[in-house]
Write a structure and sequence with these properties.
Radius of gyration: 20 Å
Oligomer: single chain
Helix content: 25-40%
Largest sheet: 5 strands, parallel
EC number: 2.1.3.3
Strand content: 5-15%
Distance between the termini: 15 Å
Structural class: alpha/beta
Order of helices and strands: HEEHEHEHHEHEHEHEHEHEHHEHH
GO biological process, one term: L-arginine biosynthetic process via ornithine
GO molecular function, one term: ornithine carbamoyltransferase activity
Catalytic activity: carbamoyl phosphate + L-ornithine = L-citrulline + phosphate + H(+)
Number of strands: 11
Main location: plastid
Shape: globular
Length: 374
């Protein structure tokens, strides 16, 4: 907070106001298994199941990714070490407090522009990025599905190089994970993954910030995800490969997360990670019970069949009672009330769904500040 207080006291000009950049340092010791030495993680070609309105039957998964290849971009949670991630989350808390205080002279993005590529409709991602960038002085440009038609009307590599010459940063919300990798490969400015079929790192950073605010800490907590083993689960697994906590994914048989990602996360030896088909046993003693839609965009034709398969995986009042009085409920939204979660659970006092949604903006602001070196 020192940098913020210094800014407020000295009333420096907006151009001069900035936080000190974060530095990447070594991984801290793990609560579960000592020191984590990061190694490249490959994301195999496998069946993709996606949440938050992201899926498309026409997409192809990534071939392989060295997650330590570049620090200019924010593509996967596991691209960064524990110290860096926690520093970004601390930064998010500071900037959130500044914005909510009504202070409007901290404008690190003044004179900067962000290109926002959307291959699909979005509410939270668009509004949180556009508003956050504006509140910190910048201008965001929305490029919808019909504006670019990435990979169809124009090659991704050409789009990346052209937008880099106009803008200071690129955010993309796409279907195929390979698209975000190609953007980052050819762009000369930072690229942020706003969601792909494979993962959703910005959502999980917001979730981590929310858990820290409400539980008091992330390390050592028990987070239980109930539902489809989709891109949200993949990002939780990647976070669990860096920061130690207990993560359980309870899903129906045949809907488990990508096996290779599970193995890599477990093999990191940082967190306790479990995949189970028993939601009632999974939630006992949970700090957080987390849910997501059972059928996302592109899967609506499967909705009826999925409702049959996912019987017993609804987060209802009975399941939250098993979890215990201290358990919070989280959902990345949009929610289908009465399907994967009851209305009563969403509206309960221990539901932190809407603080979680707000934190998308604050966590993303911190991510953008980090990758832009501000």
């Amino acid at each position: 907070m020192a940098a913020i207080f210094s800014h407020l006291t000295s009333l420096r000009s907006p151009d001069a106001a900035s936080f000190s950049s974060l530095s990447s340092s070594g991984i801290q010791s793990s609560r579960f298994s000592g020191v984590f030495a990061p190694s490249p993680i490959t994301f195999p070609a496998t069946r993709q199941r996606v949440s938050c309105q992201a899926t498309s039957p026409a997409t192809s998964p990534p071939s392989s990714v060295n997650v330590n290849a570049s620090q200019k971009d924010f593509l996967h949670i596991s691209d960064f070490d524990k110290s860096t991630l926690l520093n970004i989350l601390d930064r998010a808390k500071e900037v959130k407090q500044l914005i909510k205080s009504g202070e409007r002279t901290y404008l690190p993005f003044k004179g900067k522009t962000m290109a926002m590529i959307f291959a699909k409709p979005s509410m939270r991602t668009r509004v949180s990025f556009e508003t956050g960038f504006y509140l910190l002085g910048g201008h965001a440009i929305y490029l919808g599905p019909d504006d670019i038609q990435m990979g169809k009307r124009e090659e991704t590599r050409d789009i990346a190089r052209v937008l880099s010459r106009y803008n200071d940063i690129i955010m993309a919300r796409v279907f195929a994970h390979q698209d975000i990798l190609d953007l980052a490969k050819y762009a000369t400015v930072p690229v942020i993954n706003g969601l792909t079929d494979y993962n959703h790192p910005c959502q999980i950073m917001a979730d981590a910030l929310t858990i820290i605010e409400h539980v008091g800490h992330l390390e050592g907590t028990k987070v239980v995800y109930i539902g489809d083993g989709n891109n949200i689960v993949h990002s939780w697994l990647l976070l669990a490969s860096v920061i130690p906590f207990h993560f359980i994914c309870a899903c129906p048989k045949g809907f488990e997360p990508d096996e290779e990602t599970v193995k890599k996360a477990q093999g990191a030896g940082v967190s306790k990670i479990e995949i189970t088909n028993d939601p009632k046993e999974a939630v006992r003693g949970a700090d957080v019970v987390y849910s997501d839609v059972w059928a996302s965009m592109g899967q609506k034709e499967e909705a009826a069949q999925r409702r049959q398969v996912f019987q017993g995986f609804q987060v209802d009042e009975e399941l939250m009672k098993i979890a215990g009085q201290k358990a919070y409920f989280m959902h990345c939204l949009p929610a289908e009330r009465g399907v994967e979660v009851t209305n009563g659970v969403v509206e309960a006092p221990n539901s932190i769904v809407f603080p979680q949604a707000e934190n998308r903006m604050h966590a993303q602001n911190a991510v953008m500040l980090h990758v832009m070196g501000l």
